Amino acid sequence: MKTLYAIVLAATAMACASVQPALVQVGDRCLRCRRPIGDVRLAGEIIDNMRAPFPFRTAGCMAKYVKANTGSYTAIFVTDHKTGKMLPASDAWFVPTEIASPDGKRSEADYVAFRSRSDADAFRTHAEPLLRWVQVVAETPAN
What we know:
By secondary structure, the chain is of the alpha+beta class. The chain is built from four helices and six strands. A four-stranded antiparallel β-sheet has the order 2-1-3-4. A two-stranded antiparallel ribbon has the order 5-6. Helix 2 (59-68) packs across helix 4 (133-139). The longest helix is centred in the N-terminal third of the chain and has 16 residues, at 2-17. The chain is globular, with a radius of gyration of 17 Å. Mean pLDDT is 84; it is low at 1-16.
């Protein structure tokens, strides 16, 4: 009987650990700002406790949502700017940057995520700091 409990516990833990991001596509609407996602290499995604995926236009937009909506999430993903593949936000390196607004008339402060620190270093143009997800959320205003 103990073996059965161990197997069930292990299977449950593996099922929870194997949460995969949904496919975010150009044109999907950001949960927070409702603007369309224009560049999937900047996109993020939250998987809630019901395993429903919610897309975000950028890591900065997602950080604002997380800060304003404290709660627990099953997973938080960002897109590796170099490869276009999603990874857990806690594993990413972030570079603060300015990105063009969807209308192209202004730029806005945001973050670009990378899987590897060396890729993030190579992306930096000046002395921008390299940040982790907890730092991104901490320095982002909740609006």
